[in-house]
Amino acid sequence: MSTEPAASTLARPRTRPAWHVATVAETRRETPTAVRLVLDVPTWPGSEAGAHLDLRLTAPDGYQASRSYSVAASTPAAPGSPGQVVLAVDEVPDGEVSPFLVRDVRPGDQLELHGPLGAFFVWRPGQSTRPVQLVAGGSGVVPLYAMAAAHAAAADETPFRLLYSVRTPDDVWFADELAALAGPTLALDLVYTRRAPEGTADVVGRLTRESFAARVLPAAERPRVYVCGSTGFVETVAGWLQELGHAAGDIHTERFGGLT
Ligand SMILES: Cc1cc2nc3c(=O)[nH]c(=O)nc-3n(C[C@H](O)[C@H](O)[C@H](O)COP(=O)(O)OP(=O)(O)OC[C@H]3O[C@@H](n4cnc5c(N)ncnc54)[C@H](O)[C@@H]3O)c2cc1C
User: Keywords on this record (predicted)?
Assistant: First the structure.
């Protein structure tokens, strides 16, 4: 008997995330500089909390540009109903792709998505009973919001904390959703770097190593830590975590680009 695989097996591509055609169902202002995009995706298989995808735009002359975006929420396609993917995009001044997504995309427009992608920066219900510390800077909250929402939806009892650094109260992404999650299932700690909510005594300013250490779970509790934001934010926070005694293997990072 031959051990050669059949020609059809050789010709079959390995299973890999597919390209999907998405139709914009809704656009909503998220913050003064960011927009939320709700996309209908008839072939979307669903995604784990923390996953991302590649979004591709094609110009009329055929020029293409793609960028990665984290999935804030998604539901898989089912017979008779398309899947849905929620993204949130911040406008990077002079950027190639994000200004178009924030300013020009309208309901009915079509975009191409490749994914879901990313197996390392995900949180799965029941994965571990160790506490989870999430640390977000600005737009970096997107995959961490997905994790917090999945944690609540699964009624998972793992302690969850989110330390979220934003410039002002107007810059909080998923503000209503995070406020609804905050409480027994999510310890939410907002840090304002430029302006705090009126009438509060919150200290305004960037996190320092000392203020960070006072606000996150200590290394002795062996939390699994997920950090997401600009490259500069993530590298600073990851450095502090290691100095505070967190094992490198417990620190999961996702860098969105940019320095601040
Ligand atoms: C895994 C992953 C997930 C991501 N998820 C999100 C998300 O959910 N929401 C979101 O808004 N962005 C997200 N990003 C960032 C996104 O992929 C783009 O980098 C961003 O939208 C800028 O693209 P652009 O084409 O407008 O800018 P570009 O034309 O690529 O860059 C223009 C200039 O801006 C700088 N720059 C690039 N990215 C950033 C940034 N994030 N902050 C500041 N400066 C930057 C570049 O170095 C360059 O100087 C993610 C990135 C990765 C790798």
Answer: 2Fe-2S, Iron, Iron-sulfur, Metal-binding
For 18-117, the fitting CATH number among 2.40.30.10, 3.60.15.10, 3.30.2350.10, 3.90.1300.10 is: 2.40.30.10
How far is 39 from 179, CA to CA, in rounded Å? 24
Q: pLDDT tens digits, residue range 72-115? A: 999 999 999 999 999 999 999 999 999 999 999 999 999 999 99
Q: Is the CB of 84 inside a 6 Å radius of any atom of ligand 1?
A: no
The owner of tokens 């160790």 is 130
The residue extents of the domains of the chain are: 18-117, 132-255
The CA 92 to ligand 1 mean position distance, Å, reads 7
pLDDT score for 16 = 67
Least Cα distance to 91 among 198, 187, 171 occurs for 171
Is 132-255 in CATH node 3.40.50.80?
Answer: yes
Kindly state if the Cβ of 67 falls inside 6 Å of ligand 1.
yes
